Automatic annotation (TrEMBL):
Superkingdom assignment: Eukaryota
Alphabetic keyword roster: Ribonucleoprotein, Ribosomal protein
Family membership: Belongs to the eukaryotic ribosomal protein eS25 family.
InterPro entries, per database record: Ribosomal_eS25
Listed Pfam families: Ribosomal_S25 (PF03297)
Coiled-coil stretches noted in the UniProt entry, renumbered to this chain: none
One cellular-component annotation, GO: ribosome
Protein name: 40S ribosomal protein S25
Amino acid sequence: NLKYFKKVSIIFYCIYKNILYYYDIKLPPKERKTKEQIAAAAAASGRTKKKKWGKGKNKEKLNHAVFIDKSLHSKILECKNMKVITPSAIAEKYKVNLSVARAVINHLADKKLIAEVCVQSHSQKLYTKVA
């Protein structure tokens, strides 16, 4: 598309030049800048501030628990009643680390308190409550 656009624009430019030549139309001459104007423009351009790289969007640092104490353990055991159990859901709900959430899920699955739904996905395991 870009090559085609360049060809078309060159063709139109040639046609435009030929029309101007045919009708003997002269384009106005370009204004010549004096040395003072060129120096003033160069000095003004040097005053502009240089672009600074943006910091980007800073994510909020999460302060999730890495260890489970007794009170948190009793709360996390309530997750066996959830309809959909994933490591990210447990990590979000109980404010624990994702690796801790995976360990909790493996612990509950070993005790047969939750059942695995999808065995096909290797990256994200999906569990549900036992009926």
